[in-house]
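Lecture 7, part B: from sequences to assemblies.

Below are the input chains for today's worked example.
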Amino acid sequence: MIIRNKELKKNITGYLFIAPNLIGFIVLTLIPVLFSLVVSFTEWNLFSGTENIKFVGLKNYISMFSDVWFIDSLKNNFLYTVVTISLTLSISLLIAIILNDKVYGRNVIRAMFFMPYISNIVAISAIWLALYNPTHGPINQFLMSIGIDNPPQWLASSKWALPAIMMMSVWGGLGYNIVIYLAGLKGIPKELYEAADIDGVNSWHRLRHVTIPMLSPTIFFLLITGIISSFQVFGQINIMTQGGPATATTVIAYYIYLSGFRYYKMGYAAAMAWFLFIGIFIVTLIQWRGQKKWVNYV
Amino acid sequence: MKNDVYGNRFLKGHPKKAISKGIITVIMSVAGIMMLLPFIWMLSTSFKLQADVYKFPIEWIPKRWNFNNYREVWLNQNPPFYVYYLNSIKITVICVVGELLTSSLAGYGFARLDFKGRDKIFLLYLGTMMIPFQVLMVPRFMLFRWLGIYNTHWALILPGLFTTLGVFLLRQFFMTIPFELSESARIDGASELRTYWQIILPLAKPALASLAILSFVWRWNDYEGPLIFLTNRKLYTIPLGLTNFIDEMGGQQDTLIMAASVSALLPILIVFFLGQNYFIEGITAGSVKG
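Predicted structure of the full complex, as structure tokens:
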């Protein structure tokens, strides 16, 4: 009896500790997630009231693939992800390696690169909107001053709008990646480099055979989190281009927002959100399996 | 000699290394300043007259100074910028304090208490960390309307109080504190709540500081939440107020937009520079061990 009481007391104490958070978690995350799955099988206009919910089965999931906006959002998002992630990961690796042991005042320079990351996306978008201004923005004035007579129209051009957004995102993401890389680099034993020095290898081989393999868990982490967040890019699109010109810069998160909160198609928005979730999940799973081939955990 | 940084080797007679390190420092500093150019442009524009904004070559230091922009932004708009400030401060402070409390309690439970179903529930927490905000947007919107807190600050505060990431970060830290400490407190007859409050929390100060500053930055910068859950302008937080501003000015008043942007960024930069190390500690916590 005493033992059972003790057991019971232990359980109660444990649950009391997690209760405040657990209740919030159940009400604000768990139930909503399940509910949104249900909504994704319905057709429901926000303002028509709950009695007008209509179950339509898989219709939302099927019709998204004949929706030009959705298809273009997917295409743009893939391009955005591939370009920004590969640029950000490689440029910041280079900078992190240099900052790691080849400069004075490392933390000051690190902070300079990091500033965009902690800055508000709205302020950043406001700045870049002005910088990208096609007729009198500083970027184009500079390009014209060095002899480029027809500089890109940036956000006003369907060809250059997405690259312009991507450039801004790379600029914004470098700092975070550098900080994570620097933490990873700190964990590489100095002895490895000394051994490499004794063997007389050049710096490319040092990078290729010591730094990158030792850093592979960090690279893997940045790759996964980077892909997940790049499929949720939203702020700069909504503020700077609203997906335009036409569908040139629309992305998934933006189109979900548009469908749900501008066109009030809640069911359709929920279905696309679940598609996004499943997509992220599958990509992560594939990488998780593939990591064995190139990630070294020591 | 083994772990010497190059600076020390220089003292022992490697001038070449020091010179190349100096040159690389200069190059990287220039690159760092290039990164900051958009911010410098913002700052200088915020003190200009609109007529001077797009002059070329750029006047990095304004020839004609105009301090009116800030007064215009802070006092003469409807609503004036300080309203957004007060809203942001209120929401951020409540969220940070509340999140620290619920996360540390739950983190303590998951890390240091033994109870039935503990690991399963924690796994559930981990599982939901990958769920994108877009999935939660629609149902939370409905929930908040149903609860009658749509278009109130509660719609932003509530989700901020119960984050899974906070629980995760603190649990990881609590795991590293020796369990003997709890054991001896238990023998001395201390209750679990007392052990948590008087022994473990004081030891976890660095982790709490990291979570506090991370969470401050997230709340302060949150854009999607207010965009979806608020319609009343008087309730807007800084990011949304700024958006509103951009829309209204329609690109005609860059000086005012930039003055508003500077105002929006200043608090976060101050917080960051005061707590830089805690912040970096926080965002790297989950990355290195994979």
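Note for the exam: The beta strands of chain A are 42-43, 54-55. Keep this in mind when comparing with the next example.
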